[in-house]
Amino acid sequence: MCGIFGYVGHESKAAEIVLEGLKLLEYRGYDSWGIAVKQGKKLVFEKHVGKIGDAKINLPQSSLGIGHTRWATHGGVTEKNSHPHLDCTKTIAVVHNGIVENFQELKTELIKKGHKFISETDTEAIPHLVEENLKREGFSSSVRDAFNLLKGLNAVVIANAVSKEIVAAKTGSPLVVGIGNKELFVASDFCAIVKHTNKVIFLEDKQMVILGEKLKLISLPGGVEIQPNIQTLDWKFAETEKGKYKHFLLKEIHEQPKVIENIALNYTTEINHLAKLIDQAFGTFMLGCGTASYSALAGTYLFSRIAKKHVNFSIGSEFNYLEDYLTERSLVIAISQSGETIDVVDPVVQAKKKGSKIVAIVNMLGSTLYRQADFKILLGAGQEKAVIATKSFIAMISVLILAAYSLAKRQIAGKSLLLKAAKNVQEILQEEFEKSLQKVAGELRNKEHIYIIGRGLSYASAMEATLKIKETACLHAEGFAGGELKHGVIALIEKGTPCIVFAPNDETYDDIVSNAQEIKARGGFIIGIGPKNNNVFDRFLPTSDVGDATIIPQVVISQLLAYYLALKRGIKDPDKPRNLAKSVTVK
Ligand code: F6R
Question: At the topology level of CATH, where does 248-568 sit?
Answer without folding.
Answer: Rossmann fold (3.40.50)
